[in-house]
Design a protein that fits this description.
Elements lengths: L11 E5 L2 E4 L8 H14 L4 E2 L9 H18 L10 H23 L3 H26 L4 H28 L13 E2 L24 H21 L3 H17 L6 H17 L3 H21 L3 H10 L5 H8 L1 H10 L21 H34 L3 H20 L9 H20 L4 H4 L9
Antiparallel strand pairs: 1-2, 3-4
Length: about 450
């Protein structure tokens, strides 16, 4: 248990030259509230539920992302909504945005059929929404307390998605079809219960679009659940977060996904090395063994199915199909190595399903796009690592390590599926990337950088 108020939150916030306000000022609406709303809508509503007449970029959560992007732009140009102080993540976002824009121009110069042209426009809109979340999470969250609030919403929302997945798995009933709001419509069918192997087990996706996406998102959220299970202010709250984390850990293998298992192992390995002392490591190993034992009892054969997926991976048709795609990738890359054929133009219905985000980026945005995506990941890891080293409180270091684990997971899963084609994962990554910039800002030795933020509405 730590102090209720972070010492940094007691400092005055510099919002303009020689203009200060309290960092803990209660407002009707701020960037953290809007980011929290985005997270809630992202996890609790099915991924295919959109505003009528729009594409998948019209998911309610993504529309909030577009509002965040517009807010950040206004904050850069308005004297009343100033952003004070440096933020390295802005440069990484600029590089990423420019790479997508250059690839977009390369696609236009190539000459595109209507489907590919529409896909390019869709990808540009998704990119703006993605960067809106990254930038406002990095620059707009005013203090540690509000950042903690956003992460709490993430964990509770992840727990809700886990419950949906567990209900699907235990009852073979898709409760997600009833999670709708008046005025919205399903753009496409929800993920069905796909059988995996001869064991009789089927895959579930919660409110996500795909089973792999569901398991990956659970893996990214679990370290943050563990964070509050250790550091929440009250014992009952710690128990509640521990229970929610166990739900996510139990739901993850129900997706029957190699990617999810690898993602969870990578996330916990980062926490094991960077954040936990030996007592915590032993406790986590004990809890992990208990979860495995519970799964053996409650879902006989499930872990055996997962084990077989790894042992017989060489005979899996999905992996064989991925390696066969390398011939096409080499040809497309040779034609346009630097800027690619255009973002979003490798449409599965027209070409192939490319289950590798790094190769997808290479084909559609070229070497420049791959460099920009890698730079975004590396910048986020660097900022969170710097914040971890600067932090004096164990709680802050643990949160920074969780943010590092999310980026490591993002890098790894990019090799196993086209991760940025799935918006629940994409905007989870956007949030965690932006929070890397926020913790860097909060731990900066210069107070004018620590306390800089977006001027808030409704003060």
């Amino acid at each position: 248990m730590t102090a209720a108020v972070h010492p940094v939150d007691l400092e005055p916030s510099l919002i303009a030259p020689r203009t200060y306000t309290t960092r803990r000022l209660r407002v009707r609406f701020d960037a953290a509230a809007l980011v929290s709303l985005m997270v809630f809508l992202l996890y609790t509503l099915p991924a295919t539920l959109i505003v009528p007449g729009l594409t998948f970029a019209g998911r309610p959560a993504l529309i909030v992302g577009l509002v965040l992007f517009a807010w950040w732009i206004l904050a850069r140009i308005s004297p009343w909504l100033t952003l004070v102080g440096p933020q390295p993540l802005r440069w990484a976002c600029l590089f990423y945005m420019l790479s997508i824009m250059l690839a977009y121009l390369a696609g236009l110069l190539r000459g595109l059929p209507t489907l590919e042209a529409n896909a390019q426009n869709f990808q540009m809109l998704i990119t703006a929404e993605f960067l809106g979340v990254v930038l406002m999470a990095a620059d707009g969250i005013p203090n540690w307390q509000r950042l903690s609030g956003v992460v709490r919403v993430l964990v509770w929302s992840g727990g809700f998605m886990a419950v949906v997945g567990l209900v699907q798995s235990l009852t073979a009933f898709d409760i997600a079809q009833y999670l709708t709001l008046p005025g919205l419509e399903l753009k496409s069918d929800l993920a069905d219960f796909q059988m995996r192997g001869d064991s009789g087990h089927f895959r579930i996706a919660g409110t996500a679009t795909h089973y792999i996406e569901f398991s990956t998102v659970m893996a990214m959220c679990i370290p943050f659940g563990l964070h509050f299970a250790r550091f929440a202010g009250h014992r009952l709250t710690r128990y509640a977060f521990g229970f929610v984390t166990l739900l996510m850990a139990a739901a993850l293998p129900m997706a029957i996904s190699r990617t999810g298992v690898v993602a969870l192992a990578a996330a916990l390995l980062v926490m094991f090395v960077a954040a936990w002392d030996w007592r915590t490591r032993y406790n986590m190993m004990f809890v992990g063994a208990a979860v495995v034992g519970a799964l053996v009892i409650l879902r006989p054969g499930l872990l055996g199915t997962l084990k077989a997926m790894f042992l017989w991976a060489g005979e899996d048709p999905s992996i064989e199909g991925r390696t066969q795609d390398y011939v096409y990738i080499a040809a497309w890359f040779a034609e346009r190595p630097w800027l690619g054929r255009g973002p979003g133009t490798l449409i599965p219905d027209l070409y192939i399903i490319l289950d590798n985000q790094w190769l997808m980026t290479l084909v559609t945005a070229g070497l420049v796009g791959v460099a920009a995506l890698a730079a975004l990941h590396i910048t986020c890891i660097s900022l969170a690592t710097i914040a971890l080293r600067r932090s004096e409180r164990v709680e802050d270091r643990h949160l920074c390590a969780a943010l590092i684990s999310a980026q490591v997971v993002g890098i790894l899963v990019g090799f196993t599926f086209d991760s940025l084609s799935f918006t629940t994962y994409t905007f989870t990554l956007a949030l965690m990337s932006g929070l890397c910039g926020a913790v860097w800002r909060f731990t900066h030795p210069a107070r004018t950088v620590r306390t800089s933020t977006v001027n808030r509405w409704g003060a």
